[in-house]
């Protein structure tokens, strides 16, 4: 449900975590960039890093510290393989974890991938008035998260509540 409040465009950074993709083959990151633009938000940064805890933390820490970045969406590294380490890398940076985000994501993805959704470790949190969402690496998972959660929660007009009001842009 949207209200008559004005739309507040966010400045959003997109991080792809992958040992095998580059920016040209990163369909998940590209999907997110396209959806952000269509929704009226601005792309602050787009970076691809290897699945390395310290590279992820370095990039995301800089974005969290940057007052011009209001939201961060990561794609990749949330599974159970040996190299998947996005939750371990980024949850220590959160001031508050958004527990319901991972729960709702897994609920929505059940229709697409069945019980395999239990292997998704999608997480979200707030850090320094920046909302952070960590999504799986598949384009389908990014679509599920965008269409089922993020499009509304990053829209200042969505009622009864959204995350824009918790960011610097919404203050």
TrEMBL record:
MoaB/Mog domain: which residues?
A: 13-157
- Pathway involvement of the protein, from the record: Cofactor biosynthesis; molybdopterin biosynthesis
Q: Give the CC-aspect GO terms.
A: cytosol
- On the tree of life, the source organism's domain of life is Bacteria
Biological process, per Gene Ontology: Mo-molybdopterin cofactor biosynthetic process
Q: Which Pfam families match?
A: MoCF_biosynth
The alphabetical list of record keywords is: Molybdenum cofactor biosynthesis
**Record family assignment:** Belongs to the MoaB/Mog family.
Instruction: Describe the task this protein carries out.
Output: May be involved in the biosynthesis of molybdopterin.
Name of the protein in its database record: Molybdenum cofactor biosynthesis protein B
Q: Which organism is it from?
A: Arenicella chitinivorans
Q: Which gene encodes it?
A: moaB2
């Amino acid at each position: 449900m949207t209200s008559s409040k004005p739309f507040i465009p966010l400045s959003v950074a997109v991080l792809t975590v992958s040992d095998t993709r580059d920016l040209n083959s990163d369909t998940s990151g590209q999907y997110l960039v396209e959806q952000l633009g269509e929704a009226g938000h601005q792309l602050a940064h787009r970076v691809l890093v290897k699945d390395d805890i310290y590279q992820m933390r370095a990039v995301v820490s800089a974005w969290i510290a940057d007052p011009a970045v209001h939201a961060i969406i990561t794609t990749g590294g949330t599974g159970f393989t040996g190299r998947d380490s996005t939750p371990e890398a980024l949850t220590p940076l959160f001031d508050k974890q958004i527990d319901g985000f991972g729960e709702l994501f897994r609920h929505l993805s059940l229709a697409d991938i069945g019980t395999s959704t239990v292997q998704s470790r999608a997480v979200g949190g707030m850090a320094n008035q920046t909302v952070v969402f960590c999504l799986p690496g598949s384009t389908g998972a990014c679509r599920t998260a965008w269409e089922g959660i993020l499009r509304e929660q990053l829209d200042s007009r969505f009622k009864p509540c959204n995350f824009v009001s918790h960011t610097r842009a919404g203050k």
